[in-house]
Amino acid sequence: MTLRNVLTAGLLLGVAACGGGKAAAPAPAAAGGGTLTILSNQDFSHLDPARNWTMPQMDFGIRLLYRTLTTFKAGSHEIVPDLATDLGTASEGGKVWTFTLKEGVKYEDGTPVVSKDIKYNVERSFAPELPGGPNYAQLYLADADGYKGPLKGRHLDSIETPDDRTIVFRLKRPVAEFSSTVTLPTFAPVPAAKETVAQYDNRPFSSGPYKIERYDRGKEMVLVRNPHWSAATDPVRKAAPDRIVVKQGLRQGVIDDRLIESRGEDATSIAYTDVSAASLAKILPRPDVKSRLVNAMSGCTDMIGFNTSKPPFDDVKTRQAVHFALDKQALQTAAGGPAMTSIATSYLPPALSGGTPQDVFRLPPGGDVEKAKALLGGRTLNVRMTISTGDKALGEAVQASLKRAGVEVVLTPVDPSVYYDTVGDTAKTPDLFTYGWCPDYPSGATFLPLLFDGRTIVEKGNSGNVWQFKDEAVEKRIDEIQSMSDPKAAEAAWIDLDRQVMQSSPAVPYAWDRKPILVGKGVSGAVGHPVWSGQLDFAVLGVKQQ
Amino acid sequence: MTATVVTASPPARLVRRRLLGGSAARFGLAVVTVLVLVALAAPLLTQVNGWPPDAFDPAAIDQELAGVPKGMLGGVSGEHWLGVEPVNGRDVFSRIVYGARVSLLVSTLATLVSVLLGTVFGLLAGYLGGWADAVISRTMDLLMSFPSLIFMIALISVMPDGDRMVLLVCVMGGFGWPYIGRIVRGQAISVKHREYVDAARVGGALNGVIVFREIMPNITAPILVYATLAVPANIGTEAALSFLGVGVRPPTASWGQMIQEAMLWYEVDPMYLLIPGTCLFLTVLAFTLLGDALRDAIDPKGAAQ
């Protein structure tokens, strides 16, 4: 799920929030019935499954409105079949994947979900008219070059639907973790008859436990039960509340205050986005409120990026010098303090490096100024850093810590709405900038190739490899690891590659975040999902009857 | 000789006596004087308290609590006289005194630019009349009808790399001059048919000499009053632009930026909002009182009305 998720959310809020406490609250059995209210400071940008790739709306879509071939268990990295009967069968060495659909899965109008509807939505993800969604179908499917989506009547030959319950994907190369790939909303069903192109965002046709009763964009969405959804076919979704109401356009401070007090309707409410840093200072000293703060690891890595395409940061030593000089502790405080973030010591978050953080340089948390000065060899630098207006504290922490090593940083704050366009435009990329990345599913394959493969760089709208890092040895290694058929060996190889790229330091990882989300007193099943950046899992939320 | 519009008695002494007669004016003058002294002595003052404006103090904030200042009243102590900023622990006193420099410098320079442009163009329009007047007056109308704050934000946003101080001064001055330009133009029109101007013209004086030697000295009073009242308005505008994120570049201290950051924290750390807010309030009030008193002193007819 991308940079955009983490970053836009964080930047729009203008804070990297912080908090404390246990990673996951114990989840009591969700009681049925009642109305769950979701308080949000924003509208959904995309609910169309072909375009939905940002958290938390991706979680909202695939847990409440549509089902995918496979999905993740609540609160776990474990994949379970969802629309499919199993996790798929690989053949031809992992290049062909076959899934069989369950019987009795129905849309909100009672018609059955058939395999060609899934094929249709995968094809939709190619359509330039429907941008924004996950691009794994483009990356993986065979014979898809130049394909522009199904809207003009053309279809992909590399997806076959021999009958209503079978779907076969033919891939360019072996993809060992394709069972995980099909958890993405790209692999949810959309009947061709319900196609409304851009309008589909407003009213996705439900195959999940709820359907949209009313949606007034930016104000309110009301979900009611989909009577044709059957719990017997669905191992994951509890669908406890009778109704779910999303109230949008509230200020984050107001949401925080309402949930801290948790009176009346607010007792059965949850926050859609992170608690603001200032509100955390109100929450943490109160144990009763703190116990309602769900604070799971997000699995995302926050980074300070270099523009490696031009001086001074085209030089490895200079990048390393800045890497060593950064005071990660000050950056951590700016991002919310130790209760909210841990100091990152490699690109891969601990969840992707075998559960334990990998510390490549063993630097003190305050940085190693002497080593940095030695690497600079008496030079002083003048560099420009672009930050989003909400990240001022972070920018100032970078500025103050680099000054110690003789690196002067000029900060240019820009509006959050143009931040990624600036960073992603190779002609405009600043010397230094902030960036972040979250894995789409727990595999190094959704992390390192997207961030450090020099062949993915595009001139405008560049994302992932925004540092314009080109290293043939790394690219060769990426290809080798991607062709491995043993997922365990591949994971170990990604961890090694992580160390290798750290030596070149195209970016400095500084924090692994937690996701602080406050819920009301009467909410049960509030657990941050480890795969989806610590976002609440909408599948198992319930409300206690008051 | 040139006649003074005000009175024939020694004008400087009269103005001073009138100006310092009121307690409001004395208050205004005192605050402005203190402020200017503090701004000038900023490096000295931060040497006394030992905290440069950009120095982080991790020991003064509670990192476990999202970076709230430790201690009462936003961390007020012998070490940090007015407390510290949340998250980074920078000394509020040091940032306030350096922020005063930015506020005063930008607003004074912007006022100078607008007074200079306004006087020159206003005099030219008023004295020359005809097409020059038409062009200048329509330009002034155009600038005054612009939603200037929005335009300033746009302008500063599209020039992200420039020196923000210079940009702020140019933009604020460039949008401010028509207000004084219109006053000057009106005064110039009423003065240009006076006998002494006619006399100079008959005596063969050049246009430039007439404008700057005969007309201008007789309209300095309204210019001076206007300038004094424009300073607080510009201080407010600078704070507003900083508040909206297009002010001086961080980490330069600025009252507007402090207020903007404090908004998030006002419930847990009200001192952080209170201190720059009070400073801004006192400064604008003092300059306004001083400007009012100056107008009364220079132009008693206006005061009587």
Quick description:
The complex is a heterodimer of chains A (546) and B (305). Chain A is α+β, with helices and mostly antiparallel strands.
Account of the 3D structure:
The complex is a heterodimer of chains A (546) and B (305). In chain A, strand 2 (70-72) and strand 3 (79-81) form a beta hairpin. Helix content of chain A is 26%, strand content 19%. Chain A has a six-stranded mixed β-sheet with strand order 13-17-12-16-14-15. A five-stranded mixed β-sheet of chain A has the order 8-9-10-1-11, covered by helices on one side. Chain A has a four-stranded antiparallel β-sheet with strand order 4-5-7-6, covered by helices on one side. Chain A is globular. In chain A, helix 9 runs antiparallel to helix 11 (369-376) and helix 15 (472-482) packs antiparallel against helix 16. By secondary structure, chain A is of the alpha+beta class. The two termini of chain A are 37 Å apart. Chain B has 305 residues and is an all-alpha fold. Chain B is built from 13 helices and two strands. In chain B, strands 1-2 form a two-stranded antiparallel ribbon. Chains A and B meet through helix 7, helix 10, helix 12 and strand 15 of A and helix 11 of B.
